[in-house]
Amino acid sequence: MISNFGLDDRHVAHRERVRKFCDEQIRPVVDDYEERGEFPLDVVDELGEAGLYGINVPEEYGGAGLDFRSFVVTVEELARVWKIPAGVVSLSCSLFANTIEKYGTDWQREEWLRGLFTDNGVAAISLTEPQAGSDASAIETTATRDGDEYVIDGHKVWTSHGAVADIVLVVARTGDDGTHDDVSIIAVPEPHDRDGFEIVRDIPCMEGDAVVESEIAYDGLRVPTDYLLGEEGQGFRYIMEALDIGRIGAAAQAVGISQGAFDECISFADEREAFGRSIRQFQGVSFKLADMQMGIDASRLLTYRAASALDRGADRVTQPAAMAKTFASDTAMDVTTEAVQIHGSRGYSRDYPLERYMREAKGIQIYEGTNEVNRHVIAKNLYE
Ligand code: COS
C-alpha cells in the first residue's frame, strides 16, 4: 500500500495538523454555513490565525513559507471536509500570490501580498466575461490610460470571491489590436470602496448558496497606473502561467473531495447490512470501492508530481498541472457519483454530505479551464 506518495516527514506532520484543524474547527460548522448560504469569512480568519492560510507564501510576506507540496496537502485536507475554504486557500496562494510574487514590484508585494496574508483577506481574479470563457483572449474589458490613472470598463462573470474580495486582479485590454499582446493585469485593492465597481449579483450555482461567484460591472473605475502588474501587454502570459499553478490547486481540491466521499463509503459499506451481510461483501459494491481507490491514488500521484515540479523550481508546469487537474476532477466526479449510489437513498438525501461532494466535484471539471480546454493544452504540448 502506497502511504506517503513521495511526501517527506514534514509534509506528513503538516497533513496531520491540517486534518486536526479541519475535523475540529471546520467539520462542525459546514452544514450551518451551507444551510444559511453564508460565505465562511470567519473560517478564513481562523485558518490565518492557525498559520494555515498563506502556506507557500514567504514568511516576509505574512505567509507560512512552506513548499508547494505543503500547499496541495493543505488544500486537499480542507476539501476533504469542505470545498469552499479549500477554494479560498487555493486561489489566494496560487493564482493571486504567485502572480504578485513573480511580477509585482517590492512595493506591490509589500502592500498587497503582505497586506492580504497579514489580515487574512480574500483575493479574486476577474478574467472571465460572458463572451470570453475558454477563449480567454477574447476579453473586451478595457483599461485605458488617462494621465497617471487607468480607467477600467467592462463586464466580468464568475469572479470567484468577488463580492467578499479585499483585492481583485483585473485582466483587461490596455491596447486595441485585439491580440494576446494588449492584455494586462491591473490590481484593484479595496474594490468595494471605489466608484465604478459594482457587484451585479452573485451567480446562483449548482454548488450551493454559500459559494461566492460574482458578476461584476466595472464602470469608469480609476486606479493609479502603478497598480499595473509587470509589463503592459504581458498579462495574457502571466495569467496563463498563474492558471497553471491554479490548476494544481484545483487538482488538490478534487483529490480532497474524492477522499472525503470515499471515507464515507468505506465506513458505510462496512456497517450497512442487506440480505444478512455488510454491503461491502457484495461484488457490485466492492468493485466500486476498488475503482475509487485506484482513481484517488492516481489523482494524488499526478497532483503531487505537479507540485513537486514547482518545488524543484520548474520554469513551466503547464503539462503536469493540466493532467493533474483533468484527471483528478474527472475522478472526483466518478467517485462522488458512485459514493451517492453506494449510499442509496441516504446518498441522495441532504442529511448526508455525499450529494454536496458531488456538486462540488462538478465545478472542478469546469473551472480553471474546462477539462476540454485542459485536454487541448495537454495534446498541444505533446508536439512542443
Ligand atoms: N504559460 C505561459 N505562457 C503561456 C501559457 C502558459 N501556460 N499558455 C500560453 N502562453 C502564451 C503562449 O506562449 C503565447 O505567447 P507568445 O505569443 O509569446 O507565443 C500566448 O500565451 C498565447 O498562447 P496561445 O496561442 O496558446 O493562446 P490561445 O488564445 O490559443 O489560448 C488556451 C490558449 C485555450 C489554453 C487559453 O485561452 C486557456 O487556458 N483558456 C481557459 C481559460 C481558463 O482557464 N479560464 C478559467 C478562469 S478561472 S480564473
Structural write-up:
This protein has twelve helices and ten strands. The model has no long low-confidence stretch (mean pLDDT 97). Strand 9 (273-274) and strand 10 form a beta hairpin. It has three domains: 9-118, Acyl-CoA dehydrogenase/oxidase, N-terminal domain (Butyryl-Coa Dehydrogenase, subunit A, domain 1), CATH 1.10.540.10; 123-234, Butyryl-CoA Dehydrogenase, subunit A, domain 2 (Beta Barrel); 236-381, Up-down Bundle (Butyryl-CoA Dehydrogenase, subunit A, domain 3). The protein has helices at 9-26, 30-36, 41-49, 68-81, 83-103, 106-118, 235-271, 283-311, 318-343, 345-348, 354-364, 371-381, and strands at 123-126, 142-146, 149-160, 167-173, 183-189, 197-202, 213-224, 228-229, 273-274, 277-278. Strands 1-4-5-8 form a four-stranded mixed sheet, with helices on one face. It has a four-stranded antiparallel sheet with strand order 2-3-7-6, with no helix packed on it. A two-stranded antiparallel sheet has the order 9-10. 52% of the residues lie in helices and 15% in strands. It is of the alpha+beta class and 384 residues long. Coenzyme a persulfide binds at residues 125, 127-128, 134-137, 180, 236-237, 240-241, 243-244, 318, 367-369, 373, 377.
